[in-house]
Each structure stands twice: as C-alpha cells, then as structure tokens.
Specification:
Layout lengths: L4 H9 L14 H4 L6 H11 L5 E5 L9 E7 L2 E4 L33 E13 L4 E10 L4 E7 L9 E8 L2 E3 L4 E16 L11 E19 L2 E13 L9 H4 L14 E17 L15 E20 L6 E18 L3 E2 L6 H13 L13 H18 L3 E2 L4 E18 L12 E2 L18 E2 L2 E14 L2 E13 L11 E12 L2 E11 L3 E8 L4
Antiparallel strand pairs: 1-2, 2-4, 3-4, 4-5, 5-9, 6-7, 7-8, 9-10, 10-11, 11-12, 12-13, 13-14, 14-17, 15-16, 17-20, 18-19, 20-21, 21-22, 22-23, 23-24
C-alpha cells in the first residue's frame, strides 16, 4: 500500500528524528522557551530528538509498518583502565581522577588509558502495532596510547606533517578498536511478498515476522583506510500463521514457497573488511592583506570520499535444514562540490540588483561547515550567542561574506550493492531470509524508489544509484536520482538487460550535513509514478 498523505505530513513535522550520534545537541532549556522564533523552534524540536541521556526517535521498525515513534536512553561512560600503563595527564578522565584543588598537592597517578562505554536502550512502536525493543553497548577498550607520526607533505617542497594517532603495538591509526553488543526483539506485522525472481508478478501477499537476535561485532582498524570486521550472532525468526485473504499461508504451500513452515535457529558468523578514503582538492593561493591585490571571490574545493565493504556470512541452522552462506559487497563514493571564499563582502559595499542577488546566493551557500558538537560546552550560552548574532546581523546588514567561509554546492553520490546467497547442500533458504530490492528492505536500506517495498526477492540481489542533493534551506534540500537493480535466483538474472530502472526527484532532509530522511516522487518503467518516503534506521 502506498504511503498516505498523513504519513507525509507527520514526516515533515518530525524531520528532526535523527541519529543521536550525529545530531547537534541543543538546549531545550533556552530554545523551547523561544519556540516561536524560527531557528529556536527548530533547535527545540531537534533537542527533543537528540539531547542525551533521553530523547525521542522516529522510525526503526521495518518499512511498510506505518509511522513509528520511540525513545532512546544512552549515557556515555568514560573510565580509565587500571590494568593499563600510565598515560599523560591530558588523557586522564578528571571525573575519575580529579585534579587536586591545592596546586601544591601532588596528584596520585593510578595510570591507565581512557576507555569509553556507551550503553543504549531503545524502544519504538508503530501505528499498525509493530514494535521494536533493543539494548546495546559500544565499548572502546583502553588499549591505546597517544602517539605522533610523520606524514608526507601536501605537496613537494612543503615540510613533513606531524599528526597524532592511537598506538597499539605496531599499529597507529586515527580510529580505534570497537566492540558492539546488541540484543533485540522486533515484531513486523506486515512484510510484503510478491514472489521470487526478477519476473515476479505485482500481486502482493503479506506475512508477519517476529525476530529475536543477539550479537557481538568487533571492528579492528589496521591502517586508517582498512578495518577488519568480525562477529557472531544468534538469530531466531518466527513466522506466525495467519489466515487472511492475502496471507502467504493462504496463497502458497510449503512445496511452492521454501521455508514457509520452517523456523530455524541460526548461529550467524561473519568476517570481512571495510575501506574508506577521503581526499580534498582545494586550490592553493597566497593570502594577502594588500588592498591592491584583488583576489577572486571563490576558489574551488572538492572533497571525494569513498567507502567500501566486503563480508562473508555463514548462517548455520541447528536443525540442519536451512543453512546457507552469503556474500555482501558495497561501495559509496561521494563527491562534495564546493568552494572557499577569499575576501570580505557585505551589503554596504555592493550596489545593483543583480550584484546584490549574486552575493546573497553566495552567502546562502557559503555559511561554513556545521559546528562540531564536541566543542559546545555550554548549550544554553551557545544557543543565546547564535540568537544574538542572528538579530545583530539582521539589524545591521542584509548579507555578509567572510574570508575562508566554506561553500556547499551539493553532493553527488554513486552507490552500488551486491548480495549473493547459496544454500548448503541438501538445505533450502527460507524465503524471508532472502534479500530484496525495491523501495526499502527490512533494514530500511533504499534501493529502487520507483517500486514498492520488498518488490523483488531472490537469492541474489543488486542495485546501483546515482543521486545529487543540493541544500536549499536548512535542514531541507532538493535531490534528483536514478536507480537500477533487481533480485533473482541466479547471478545471470542480474545482468544489465534484466535490471529494473527508475528516476525521480524529492526533498532531502539532513541534520549537520547527515541525511536522515527523504520524501520523493519516482517513476519506474512498468510501475508508474510512485510517491514515497524513507527514514534512516535509528537503532
């Protein structure tokens, strides 16, 4: 069933349900008192959906199960490992080892490296009765010490660079070992099923899927661009029998639909790696204060980020009837188009309608990167300062461009994803464990936006995406996109001639440059125009 208008309106109202780890924490104490001031109102709503230790969230139930709202509690706990060697004073946590009040008192150094534990509890329920309950913890163990390494110069002739890193034996990386623990139970009352293979008919059946799973995942960086990933999980799916007209139990049998009456208990292990790299191309110019030197207003700045992942999964069924293996691979290349301003301009020094219009557009897109939440120590004071600055600017000048402002002219993304699954000899893969392409899959991953959620299902699946997003007015942006993909029973079903395609446009919603939701209109060949929305999975 296609999204209703009420879902779109609710999504527009609740656009600030975002990742708590990426949202800029705002001050409810100050912003909510000034809710009817536009920016403070946005800050207030954002605070409701981001401020620790307790905040609200949207989403997190599988797509097609109505609009969900939930709550998350999380509290970072910093501590110092007593079993590790001593560290420099700046690395010690003052909450654990407070500095002496008397400067003449010698501080007792109990040693240890700083560690972090982030426990999290979350729950969500949707309008159709689906729900989700989870508990997790991320642990960064205290096994690293601060170190300095020498990096190559940015260009020949420049001195070598000194950068900090986290050292562990011979490793010295920007990121550190992370271990993720999770236990979850979710109930999805409506999952769509259209058959198996790339030519499945547009006739929808549904099923309910209850799942309980718990896992431990570890990520170990070897170098800055390469990380090993490994984990183990227990997964227990349950497929309650339903007798309504469009139930899979009414329209299929165990002979025609693999896994219809099987409820395996899986031990799922995985091993793989991720890669990431980022490079910034910015023209190097000589800065000068000489008023006779007229620098161009903008110089180009393009940042290219590339991420890749590869993993092999083993799903071992305790009963020995539904074991299978699966390979997953994906890549995401983002090209951030931008520029950097080189001189100061304001409305008092510019005349003429077209000139003033040009500089206003430049100011709109050249506000600089968002503030780093880690630098905000006093939320109330930060909110007040931004409000005062906005009022002062409004009263004195209509626009202002300062040197070194960073301009954001949008992001071009190229994404690709591949899954291939093979059953162990003598086993079959339950249909509800197969990957899907179309709309969103059960984990809210977007693929073919011009088709219904879960539209194509098979042992093998792939999709490609090209997407351009342009910020318009924070937090909203415009986007255009092209998708291609399909799911099949063999890899030959994924050849170019079998790919389904769509294209469309919509609204992209992001907080602190991180996309959190989309509302779009897409057209796919044979599917007509398809309105839709998606929320990034919250937890």
């Amino acid at each position: 069933m296609r999204p209703r208008l009420s879902c779109f309106l609710l999504l527009l109202f609740g656009f600030t349900g975002v990742f708590s780890t990426t949202a800029h924490p705002q001050s409810m104490e100050y912003s909510c008192k000034h809710f009817f001031h536009l920016h403070q109102g946005i800050d207030c709503v954002e605070a409701l959906f981001s401020e620790d230790p307790f905040h609200l969230v949207f989403g997190s139930v599988p797509p097609g199960n109505g609009v969900a709202i939930g709550a998350v509690w999380q509290k970072p706990i910093h501590f110092v490992s007593p079993f590790a060697p001593a560290v420099i004073p700046d690395m010690r946590d003052s909450a654990v080892f407070p500095l002496p009040k008397d400067p003449g008192t010698k501080e007792t150094d109990r040693g240890g490296y700083k560690s972090l534990l982030l426990p999290r509890l979350g729950a969500a329920a949707s309008t159709n009765g689906s729900w989700y309950l989870t508990g997790s913890a991320d642990w960064l163990p205290g096994i690293y010490k601060d170190a300095v390494r020498t990096r190559a110069p940015l260009k020949p002739g420049l001195p070598e660079r000194k950068t900090t890193c986290h050292e562990f034996f011979i490793l010295c990386t920007e990121s550190v070992l992370g271990i993720h623990f999770e236990g979850t139970h979710r109930v999805a009352r409506t999952i769509s099923f259209y058959g198996l293979g790339p030519a499945s008919p547009p006739v929808k059946s549904t099923f309910r899927l209850d799942e309980t799973y718990g896992s431990v995942q570890a990520r170990m960086p070897i170098v800055d661009t390469f990380t090993f990933v490994a984990g183990v999980e227990g997964r227990f799916p349950n497929l309650p029998v339903e007798s309504h007209a469009n139930s899979v139990f009414t329209n299929f049998t165990a002979a025609t639909l693999p896994g219809l009456i099987s409820e395996p208990a899986y031990v799922h292990s995985n091993l793989g790696f991720t890669t990431q790299a980022r490079h910034v191309y910015e023209a190097i110019t000589k800065e000068t204060d000489d008023p006779n030197v007229h620098l161009p207003l903008l110089k180009h700045r393009t940042a290219i980020s590339a991420k890749g992942e590869f993993a092999y999964h083993w799903y071992s069924d305790a009963s020995g009837n539904s074991s299978f293996q699966q390979l997953t691979a994906g890549t995401d290349v983002a090209i951030e188009l931008g520029a950097v301003t080189q001189r100061y301009v304001n409305s008092t020094s510019v005349s003429g309608f077209w000139s003033r219009t040009f500089y206003r557009v430049v100011e709109h897109y050249c506000g600089g990167p968002p503030a780093d939440p880690r630098t905000v120590t006093d939320k109330k004071q930060d909110a007040e300062q931004r409000a005062n600055a906005a009022e002062q600017k409004k009263s004195q000048i209509s626009f202002e461009i300062k040197p070194r402002d960073r301009c954001d002219f949008g992001t071009l993304n190229f994404r690709a994803h591949l899954v291939t699954s093979r059953a162990t000899t003598g086993n079959v893969i339950p249909f509800y464990m197969l990957p899907t392409v179309g709309g969103q899959d059960i984990d809210s991953r977007v693929s073919l936006r011009g088709f219904d959620n879960y539209r194509f299902r098979g042992a093998d699946a792939t999709f490609f995406q090209v997407e351009y997003t342009l910020p318009v007015y924070d937090p909203f942006g415009a986007m255009v996109f092209y998708d291609a993909g399909n799911a099949g029973n063999t890899l030959s079903d994924l050849s170019f001639g079998h790919l389904r395609q769509d294209a469309g446009f919509g609204i992209n919603i992001r907080i602190l440059r991180m996309p959190v939701a989309q509302i779009y209109l897409a057209g796919g060949r044979g599917a007509g125009l398809h309105p839709g929305f998606n929320l990034v999975k919250q937890f």
